[in-house]
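We emphasize that the prediction below concerns an isolated chain of 176 residues; any contacts that depend on oligomerization or on bound cofactors are therefore not represented. The input was used exactly as deposited, without trimming of termini.
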Amino acid sequence: MAGRHLVLVGLPGAGKTSAGRLVADRLARPFLDFDEELERRAGCSVTELFARDGEAAFREREVDLSVELAGRPAMVIAPGGGWMANPLAAATLRPAARIIYLRVSPAAALDRMGPALAARPLLAGADPRQALEGLLRRREALYAMADFVLDTEALSVDEVADTLAVLTREFERADG
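Result of the prediction step, given as a token string:
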């Protein structure tokens, strides 16, 4: 099946949104960031959604959006860091998608986030690095179930986007 969605998963700060926007441009596809779309629909930030409705309700919204996107033409999608941990969300999009795990260490992810760290509800608290390490321990096996793992630690965002564009074209040739 040619023209599958390209779904980028990984820790917060892995580059899903920044590389996703660039690779979408390179592939001439629409780009959708789950958090931005869910914020737009709810009229408030992810942090406010978590505080108001809780994480479980947020994850339900992710599933609903996954169901909605499954039948749409190919796009580049950047779900939140916990999307892959929700088996229903991932299973809904997997047949229509190639899932790429953008692997990065918690230390590098923190460096990349900079001041944007404050907008990450699961990293709020005294030790964001410890929180990220915990997320990685809980999610790494799920992330590793992706169709491809791309180590982004030493790559610039442009190099990540270039590599993703090449991978996507290779996947599409293989899909026929």
